[in-house]
Design goal:
CATH architecture: 3-Layer(aba) Sandwich
Distance between the termini: 39 Å
Order of helices and strands: EEEHEHEHEHEEEEEHEHHHEEEE
Structural class: alpha/beta
Helix content: 25-40%
CATH class: Alpha Beta
Oligomer: single chain
CATH topology: Peroxisomal Thiolase, Chain A, domain 1
Number of domains: 1
Number of strands: 16
């Protein structure tokens, strides 16, 4: 386990943006009525947000970041770090972070780079940006988003009704008075095939065979594949111990923390994890019902959707936990005392 803390960095603001287009799972055409009802009951997902053909994850992140920077009244020339975490970048080359740096009007003194992570990406991203800011004593932006609908076949009835599109922006700053941000990060590449797009990379370049539709599976080899049972078992096995180890290492208890915000995988999985940790469900907000599984952005989306009127009113520490593709997972404890949370943005 990678257990560590980052000192003198504060989370100053969080914003999130979702597409206006709504897809209702009760109307999903590739399941029977009985399958639809069972899917909604098990996953807790009734609606999803889907980008149009002209919108990318970076567009959603840009909208969130632009609004957040305006709300915070930050001088954009003072931003030193910009990290974009996504599995749906604009291009294979160049990285999307540099494009966002320019679009947001941030100066050339800012370092900018992409991180290819999925469901654990927000927690990992916080660790990267906060660690850099602790060294350079500056300001940073963490932009996390996925347009998962663009890499999933609509006919894949086990996967398509799960995922939504969203983007987020989090502002962090060096702060002498900030409480430490405490992390526990882990990975297990032996499970890399549990969530994968088999073709289209350097290992298996795109070919005519990549686009052949498999009727039995409801997808092509270029589409994302999700082994639901394997991912569920991984989450059941690894997430609660990761959180427990974080709490024990830093001598914290669940009573110390105001909320526990988990990656929005599905309701069954999140309820199971909360039960293993003996958590009060009133302290485990979920955004699944109307916003679906928003991938790497699901933690900030849940912060914005569920806690925008609560967080920041007083000193509240929250535990964040992300887990999935990689396999990769991690948790962190962060103070929300100085954090401004904007209302959910539609674009």
């Amino acid at each position: 386990m990678a257990l560590f803390d980052v000192n003198k960095v504060s989370l100053k603001g969080v914003a999130a943006c979702v597409p206006k287009n709504i897809a209702k799972n009760a109307e999903y055409p590739y399941q029977t009525e009985l399958e639809r009802k069972q899917f909604i009951k098990t996953t807790g997902i009734e609606q999803r947000r889907i980008v149009d053909s002209n919108t990318t994850a970076s567009d959603l992140c840009f909208k969130a970041a632009d609004n957040l920077l305006s709300e915070l009244k930050w001088d954009r020339s003072e931003i030193n770090v910009l990290v974009f975490v996504s599995q749906t970048p604009d291009y294979k080359i160049p990285c999307t972070a540099t494009i966002l740096q320019d679009k947001l009007g941030i100066g050339k003194s800012c370092m900018a780079f992409d991180v290819n992570l999925g469901c654990s990406g927000y927690v990992y991203g916080l660790s990267i940006v906060s660690s850099l800011l602790a060294q350079i004593k500056g300001k940073g932006l963490l932009l996390v988003g996925d347009a998962s609908s663009t890499c999933i076949n609509l006919k894949d009835k086990t996967t398509a009704p799960l995922f939504s599109d969203a983007g987020s922006a989090s502002a962090l700053s060096f702060d002498d008075k900030a409480k430490p941000i405490q992390f526990n990060l882990q990975s297990d590449g032996a499970g890399y095939e549990a969530i994968i797009s088999p073709d289209g990379g350097s290992r298996n370049p795109m070919s005519e065979d990549s686009l052949v539709f498999d009727e039995a599976l409801g997808r092509t080899r270029a589409d994302m594949f999700l082994d639901g049972i394997r991912v569920f078992n991984f989450s059941r096995r690894e997430v609660a111990p990761n959180v427990t180890a974080l709490l024990e290492h830093f001598e914290r208890s669940t009573e110390d923390l105001s909320y526990f915000i988990f990656h929005q995988a599905n309701k069954l999985m999140n309820d199971m994890i909360a039960k293993k940790l003996n958590l009060d469900m009133a302290k485990v907000p979920q955004s699944l019902r109307l916003l679906g599984n928003t991938g790497a952005a699901s933690i900030p989306v849940t912060l914005v959707d569920q806690l925008d009127t609560i967080i920041g009113k007083q000193d509240k520490e929250v535990l964040l936990s992300g887990f999935g593709v990689g396999l990769s997972w991690g948790s962190c404890i962060v103070s929300m005392e100085e954090c401004t949370i904007l209302r959910l943005i539609e674009y």
